[in-house]
Amino acid sequence: MSKNIDPPYNTGEDFVYPDNFHDSIENYKKITGQVDDEGKKIGTNTETSGRYHTNWLNMMYPRLRLARNLLADDGVIFVSVDYNENFNCRTILNEIFGLSNFIGEIYWESKTKSQNTETAYNKLQPKAEMILVYTKQLKRRFNLIVKELKDYPLSDEQGNYREYPLEVMNATGIRGRETMIYDVSDGISTVSPPPGKQWKLGQDQVAAYKDSGNLFIREGKVIIKMRPEFERNETTEPFWGFFSKELGTAENAKSDLTELIGEHGFETVKPIDVIKRLIFHATEKNDIILDFFSGSATTAHAVMQLNADDGDSGKRKFIMVQLPELTDKKSTTYKAGYVNVSEIGKERIRRAGEKIKSEAGLFAQNLDVGFKVFKLDTSNIRKWQPDYDNLEVSLLDYVDNFVEGRTELDVVYEIMLKYGFDLTYSVDEFIVSEKKVYSVGYGMLMICLSNGIKPDVAEGILKRVKELSPESSRVVFKDNGFEKDSDKTNIKEILKVGGIKEFITI
Length: 506
Prior knowledge:
With 506 residues, the chain is an alpha/beta fold.
């Protein structure tokens, strides 16, 4: 997994993350909303605050530590910042990831127009933002853009090759080596480097070419028959530490988003091509990309577009995380139906997916632009909190142990989480004896939350499991869902005899 995050830059107006990890989830939601009586967002970290930088760092530090734990062993994290917190962000990233795992800092030319603010006469006007790059793996190799493939126009009994004249370089200075000054012979002629020069290749490597019949001398020049298996057969562009405006600016990214979804309220937006470039350099074609400050979901858009660019081979997945920060009720964004930032991101993913598929041509039928939306909440299973003064009523109330208002799918996904199933797994429904059964991961997990369960339901589930032939299966029922206690016992034995590894009730 690689990560790309664009956290609040701590400008004093964009910071609504005052954490209190001792609070309940309900209070946490209220606190992180940071709205006035009308539901309008308010800034919570003004420059006049004595803890201006501390508040931002207290918000970022635990998130970055968790990010490191989630990051794959060869994963990369990109953190977008500007001058407000660049230095402080580097400090905590060095502590969490280690200074030796600092890859570098990318300067992105994010602006082409002057800010024209009151400070224009006494402050530098920012033209670039920074993207800090850290990895968990030392000397981690990045993907490079292929500019062209080398041509091998000649052939002999060993196969195709190109002629590579052995090059020379200065023998003076820090790169000078006496061992690189030697005679080269093909058995007929002998050549030495000119005075003050040395060969670019070492003596052992040149000898290997000669011994394999891939070296000869012509007109006083040493020629090597360079074959595809001897070298990288492509020329590449480096992973530059500078992204020019040609990849897009915040201004045109904002316009592109407006064209896609209409009024959105974002003043700063990352261009798709900037995020695509980061993802290309740092991921393989089936990796997972996490953005836990997803905003308008540019990262999701970039992942889908990069998969489309790759054709059938692009299988990257994305995880977007965003607090449901409310939009201003008086704004055109709110009037357009976007009551919070999360809704903007969801709509962007929908529309971007449709647009990408429409442009994908032959690959459209295999292109996956689907996504699932989950919200943080308490468990769907009710806690046992009886009224000991009226225990009989409590027992009756808790016969149904699901929280009121929750759907069966809510419970299904909670079960998936608790048993370690990916939330991207398929969830299919089928009917057995008029009871609904959920099949997760093509039969790896079967869930039935209906009432009045009898042994024929278990037999129907076994039949479906055998049709799907999953590697392993477990079956989950609601504890009070069986018609009789004896049915529960019989069902457990039926499933055990049928090869089901786990029988679970909740």
